[in-house]
Amino acid sequence: MNAQTRKPTNLSLDSALLSEAKALKVNLSRAAEEGVRAAVTAAKSERWKAENASALRSSNSYVERHGLPLERFRQF
Question: In 25-64, which positions are buried (b, 16+ CB within 10 angstroms) versus exposed (e)?
């Protein structure tokens, strides 16, 4: 990302963690951004699973009853 797409933000962090990060010269903005990105990805994944749970159950039920549609062509 370039600087034009960034927005200054205030965060409250554990003071001991902040001190350690500064001592280790961790780029706090990048670290926070990576953490927020991971949290957003996880939240989207969980939301997708919840929204599609019925379809997944239905598909799994079909396979349990009838097997995989193209199973006869599997070579393993």
Answer: eeeeeeeeeeeeeeeeeeeeeeeeeeeeeeeeeeeeeeee
Q: Which residue has the tokens 């003071």?
A: 15
Q: What is the pTM of this model?
A: 0.70
Tokens of 60: 């799994």
Please check the confidence at residue 1 and state whether its pLDDT lies above 80: no
Closest CA to 11 of 39, 31, 41: 31
Count of CB atoms situated within 10 Å of the CB of 21:
16
- Dihedral in degrees, nearest 10, Cα atoms 60, 63, 69, 73: 110
pLDDT in tens, 16-71: 999 999 999 999 999 999 999 999 999 999 999 999 999 999 999 999 999 998 98
